């Protein structure tokens, strides 16, 4: 028998499209299909040809499947419809439009920016920008032509290219170079999301090098909170601002520079900085700004410039000599330095320090007094010879360590409430408050703390009477401590200094046998390796408490009474240094702070102290070999810590002691 395809020989006896799809006709059609299928199956059973049987069985299966499909489709017509959603349709369409724009296909608008032509599609521009939507729907005759032409003057060609790509892709890369020009386009185009991206970029990337530009853009485009934040940054970090963006300062308007120098709380190290800024600002555009100099100089607190600065710098300045009122101000300032140099009782703001002036102080923290453990924090004003109180530590603390990094004071370890602690606190003088940071990995007391290469290093110490040799490094950005290579020798109560922003020197201290040691070891922060250095050549016995200072890149060590040495790094040897010694006031276990060859000494025990902490304080000038008493601290302490810090004058009130 010759094989004939079923679809050619057999056809369905009805057409779903032609027949009405009521319930009765549907049932009749299904019955007829069923009878036909049974008849075809019976024929296939009587056939002995395999090929015919296979072909018919396959066809029968297809027809039986048709029955199911037909029934399903029929029921679907009676029920609800089916919804289909193709994913990422919008993205695919935009990608197609982007490719069409790249090929200049179907473009119906031309943008002319700085002589450069950009072709685009009106519907895309109108969908992304209310500005273009209004322009394309303005009803003008030129908008009705096939290809409209528009001239854009609010931004640059490079920024327009970035903005168009953003419209077609939803992606844009904002950096310090293009953020201003993108803002100049996003604002008139009323693209709020793009403006928000520029705002976020400036918020997260504001620093001393760009804060003046950020403030200007924030004011221009209505970012009120960013403007306030930039103003506060300029006030608090003014010394960094003039260091990293002095040219931007010199380009400020008269109103802006006047606002800057009249700010009572601006954080400035010396009034000389304000004077220099005024002179440089005037000379930046001398022909136009010279008449403004007499209006700016009265806002400089000239009595605080210092007599030597007045005589050698101000008196020789041509701008001062050119105006009679400026010469009069100079004469009055010289008179003030002679009579009331540090008398700030006058109501005149010119005679008072700025509240934001960064004042040199020696800070004494914690310890033990006759009344018990202390959490107090006292600041000694070097130029005024008086004490003031700073916010206390969160808890009483003793046998701890302190140091300065990024003009913030860190206090680590020690003993608090009879327990050795791993807590670390940071005092920010700009905000005048303490903050808790990440804890040390190992609780320890009698440790040493030193900054180097943007990190803090905690070395040695005691933990439950066991001498430590481990070293931990603190990353302030990550707020995390990690262990680095440990010291070759277990020690505690060491003197540590950093040199060249790379090397940490661990000097003297006590070893595992609790004895004083002259050992000196050096840690390389780049290679994470320790090396031995020549020990201190103490011929007449070990020094109980050597005073160590880094001065002009050199390490000096002395016992303040007999010898002083300087480390020759190239020869790895100590060289005797010249120092005029005087008899040290008898005391032991004192705390000291060395600044520019001056050593401030606080607390300690003395033979005449009747088993009580010494209440007075003194300073030793190593160049003159002269001891001088200074104002006694508010509390007599042992086991405290001290360091040098700059604190805004407004936090150093005279009634704070």
From TrEMBL:
Domain of life: Eukaryota
Coiled-coil features, chain-numbered ranges: none
Record-linked Gene3D superfamilies: 1.25.40.420, Kelch-type beta propeller, Potassium Channel Kv1.1, Chain A
Pfam family, one: Beta-prop_Calicin
Domain BTB: 107-176
Keywords linked to the UniProt accession: Kelch repeat, Repeat
Membrane-spanning ranges: none
Protein name: BTB domain-containing protein
Source organism of this protein record: Strongylocentrotus purpuratus
Native organism taxonomy: Eukaryota, Metazoa, Echinodermata, Eleutherozoa, Echinozoa
